Write the C-alpha cells for this entry.
Amino acid sequence: MYPGTAEFGFELLVCRWAEESWPPEDERSDAVIVARQLGTRRRRWDTVVLECDPAGLRARREFGERELDSDLLHVVRNAPAEWEWYRDALPHPGYPWRYVREAIHRAAARDAVETRRRGNRIEIRRIAPYPDWLRRIVAIENKPDLDASAARALSSQLEHDVETALADEVWVATEATGRRIEPALLEDLPVDVGILALSFDDANPSTADTGGVEWYPSEVTPPDAAADEERQRRRLELAERAYGRGWRSYHETMRPDCRHFELRRFGRALVPYCGAKRRSQTAAECAGSCERFEPEPPLWRTRGWPIEGGPGKGIKGLLRRRREWIRDRECERVGEE
Ligand code: SF4
C-alpha cells in the first residue's frame, strides 16, 4: 500500500486508476475524464468520473480548455447560429441582464461566442453548437480503511447521494485486503452503492493498480431524468468543473514551490511527497501555514531540474501537461473507432 498519509495518497491513486481502467472489469467504450473533490455546496465527492460521448468531447474542445461556469453555459448553450440581439436570442436568465452582458464579454474574450455591436445593441452568434458530451457521472468515495464504523459513518452521506441522483452511480473504493468484504459491512452501506476493492502495491508490479468489484451499484438515475431540466443543468455545471480541473490540480492549493516538495512515482502514478516530513503530506498541511515551508532557492530556477525535488514551476507545468495529454488522448482514442 501507498506509504503515506492514507486518504489523500489513496485518493490520488484511485484517480489515476480510474483514468486508466474505468469501467472496472469491463471494456472502455466511452471517453473518460476524472476529477477530485468536486460536488455541490452540500456534498463533495472524493473522485468523480465522467463517462463522455467521444465525438461530443472532441467538439467540446472548441470552447477551450477551461471550464464554463453557469453564466457562460447559459450564453454558449443558447447562442444562435445567426447574428441576433442577445436579449432576443437568450432565454431570460432569472437575474438582471447586465450579468448576462458581463458573461457575454467573458465568453467572447475566451472565443467561446462571437459578438458585434449594432448601434447600442450587442449581437451574438455561436462559434459552434455546444455539444451533448456528458453521458454519465460516477461518484466515488474513497475509504482505504473501510471497517464497520467507517461504513456506518458514510452511510447517511451515501443515502443522500442516492436520493439526489446527481450522479448516475455511487461507489465506495477501499483498499483490497485479500479477504472478502465482510457481509456485515455491506449491511451498513446503502444497497445501491457499489464497492470497489483496489490494490496499489508498488513492490509487486503484477498486482499494482488492480481493482475488483465486490458489489455492483444500482443505476440511481431517476427514470424521468431527461425531463428534469434543473438536474441536468446542475450535472452539466459539475461536469464542466471536472473538465476544467481534472484531478491533478492539487498543485494549485499545495506548495510545489517549497524546497521539500517532491513528486514520487508510485506504480503508474506520481504522488506528492514531503522531503522534510519524510512522508506523503496531505493537501491541507502542505499550505502557506506549514511550519516547515522553505522557498526553493532561486538558483534552482536557473537550471533544468528533474521531477523529484522541484522546482515548483516545473512540477506545476508537468501536472498541467499530463492533464492536457490525457484529455487529448481520450479524444483521439475514439477518433480511431
Ligand atoms: S515542508 Fe510543508 S510546505 Fe513544504 S512540502 Fe512539506 S508539507 Fe509542503
Notes: The chain has three domains: 10-53+133-245, 69-126, 250-335. Residues 50 and 239 are 7 Å apart (CA to CA). The chain is about 35% helix and 20% strand.
